[in-house]
Structures are given as structure tokens and as C-alpha cells.
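Chain X:
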Amino acid sequence: MEAINSADYQNVMSIKGLSNEMKSLPVCISELFGHIEPTDELINCSLRHLSKQSLKNLDSNNNSAKGIAQGKLFESVVYEQMLEILTKCDFVRAIVKKKDDAIIFSQKAVYGQNGLFYNGEGDIVLRGNGQDLGEFDMLFVDGAGQVCFCEIMSAIPKGHIISLANEIKYKKRILSKILNQESVPFLLIIAENSKNKIIQWKNLLLTEESDSFITFPSIEEIKSKINNNSESVPLNSLVFSEKAKELNLLNFGINFDYKEIHDECVKEIIKLCRSEDFNSVNFLDRIELIKKQVFIGIINPKDIETLLSIHNIVNYKNRLSASEIRNNHDKIILAMDIENELPIIYMKEKEKKSYLKMIFTKNNEFHFKNKKNQRNAGLFEWLQNMDNNISVEDSLNVISLCS
């Protein structure tokens, strides 16, 4: 399909047959807008979503800061464009607001929090018991009330395809569960210069007939249209859309208890560890709805010697003894890093509201990673509220299972 300039999108709306109920929203969008060329005005309007520092970082010498800023710009341009072109599409019932349009509705993560929320930057995040499980670049609701989500990428780094595919798979699975929706269509929006990668890996990324993708200009092309002489960045979008809704106005019917799902998965893991063939089973298949970490249980201080006889615990190159651990810490928690398939130990410092996070290394030891405190509200409260114990035998089996 030829590139469509966003200024001419009204003409495209006259195409018949694309609101067919048999077609998913991503497929309809893809058939209407295979490639979109945003106007200069829209690109400059999208700058309202970027902070002053992000605007400066667009041309930074720091490649990391520059990459983050460019990703935010690309995402903001796509958001503004989708607001404009989808507002008159019959097959779209709602577009979920985000960024500058939603930042006033942001909520801090707290223990026990489940559902979709806005974080401090106005991004859409799914939280489970106060933990951020995933971020959704955009959410749409089609004419039948079905939710679909969107991933926006200005670039796809080398080696990122597998992790992207896993992320899409998880988001489909968790949204299907909490929305009670049989399948969740997915739309991938990428820069034109990444198109060949997507075509090459299409079967891995777009796994269902309801999934599709569209392209935008490269970030370099978008940046070239920024008006650096403008006195101020627009405060509002170019278009007012009644279909643009805040999360709290959309009745998604979300009703799930992530802690309950998590605790059932812990039982599955313990059960698996006690089976004779636990080393031959992929434990990730048993915890498909869990993201980031599984908090297994509290290790009895009396069992520290047994644990240390097999796995050292090292803090700043200092190999800790059992007495040092007991004297300086009053809670030892075993957890699992799902994404990296590694065991973790959290050690609560006595008379302090902080935990030392110790991660498993290749040399069969736990090494200090960082501290977690009340600033990490959801995680900290989860650790504080844990009261289930785990035997040293089960602890060692869990470590063996995921190391």
C-alpha cells in the first residue's frame, strides 16, 4: 500500500469493507494505513509529551540518553497520529489516553494494587499486587468491545527479537486472563527502516491472524521535521476526540488477584521440586502468568549453614558467614528472577527498612546487586508482608531448578 499522508486520511475513510466484523482492529488499521507520513505540524505537536531534558537529549552525545529520547519522540508521534486518524474510524470505539493527556491521573504503585494504571509519566502499566507487570504503548477498544494492544518501536536492537516475542506473548496471555477475552489482537508499529526485520520474523512476532503491523518514517526523518525555531511547544493535541478515554472511564471488567495467582505458582514450583524428574521439566511452563519475580518463601535462620555449605553469599567481596547473616539480618527470602531464570535472595537489614538483593552468579554464589527500600513501594511491601516459610531442602532444589 502506498504511504498515506495524515492530512489526507479522511479520503481513505471512504474505502468500504474494512470495518468487517470478521477482521480484527489491527488488521483493519494495517489495511487502511500500511505506511503513514505524519505532517510537520503533527510532529511538532507531539513534542508536548516530551520533557525539556528529553528534547535536549534528542541530539545528545550520550548514545543511551539519545536513544531513550528518540524512542519517546517516536512513541509520541505515533500516539498523536493514531488519535487523529482513528477518531473517525467506525471500527474503533475507544483509544486509551496516555502521556501528557493522562499524567494527571497517574497513581503510585502500592501493595495490593491490581489492574491497569497510569505511572508517573502517563504511561499505561499493568500492576499485580503493586508490581509493574508490563507497559502497554497503546490500548484500543474495537466496535465489539474487544481490547487490543500496541507495541511502538523506533528501532529493534540486534538480538532483541526473541525478548520482544516473549513480551508480546506474555501480554497477550495476561490480558486474555484478566479481561476474560479469548484472544487479544496485537498491532506492531515500527519505523520503516525496521520493516525487513519484521517481515523476516513475522511468524515469531505476529502469531495470530488478528495481529498486524504498520510503519512510520524513521526517527531521523521525524527529527528533521522538528521546528527548532518555534517559541513554544503546543499544549494540546491537534484534534479533540471523544473516543480518547482515560483508563478509569473504560469498564474493562478487570477482576484478578495477582497475589493469588502468584501463590498458586509457588505451590506448583515446590511440588515440582519435590518430584523425581524436576530437572527434566521446564518450570516456566508452570508459571506462565507470572512476570519478573516469584517470591518463594522465608528461609529459617537455622538453615543458613546448610545453604552456605553449597552456595556462598558475598557482599562487596566479603563472603558472609552464617553468624554475620543472622546478626545483621532478620529476614532471608528466596525468590526467582523469571526473565533471567536465576535465583535471588533478599536479606532484610536489622533496624533498617531495606533489603539487600543478592543475585546468583555463574560461580554458584549469591552476590550483592542493590538495595530495595520504601522507594520501591510495591516490592518492599510484598517482601514485608511475606510470612510463608520454605525448608532448606526445598530452597536448594529451587536454586538448582533455575540455575
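Chain Y:
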Amino acid sequence: MHLDEMSVWKEVWLAEATRIKDPDIDLKKKQIIGVYNRPIHPQYRKISSSLQTWLHQALLGKVTAAEALHNAQIEIDQLIGPD
């Protein structure tokens, strides 16, 4: 048995009842250190979609990694404008 969700309160992580219910709590504590919120940007979904699409093409071998990043950059620049 495991916790259905990870509590935001660190005190809960240390509770004996938590350790009994979820023996993997120590692993989850280590993993949560690397968790970051997604960027807040009005075009984030489109930016993310472009990156996913082009990186997938590179992983399939249809384009090189450099081409994938270049093509994604072009699409992103069209969405938000260059620096």
C-alpha cells in the first residue's frame, strides 16, 4: 500500500503512520527535490508542443538533433519573437 498522493507538509513525511502506509516515502522525498513548476508563459503549451514534436523527430532519426532544435527555435520565435 502507498499514499495516494504526496503531502505538501513535510511533517507528514516523517510521521510513523506515513512510513507504515508508504514504505517508499524516503525515495519520494529524494525525488521531490528535483521537482520544478513548469514555466509560466502565455504560450507555454505551444512552446512545449513544438519542442516535443521536433525532439521526437530527432529521436526517430528523421532530423538531426541540431535540426530539431533549430526548427523548434524558429517556431518558438514565431510565437514569442526573438530575443
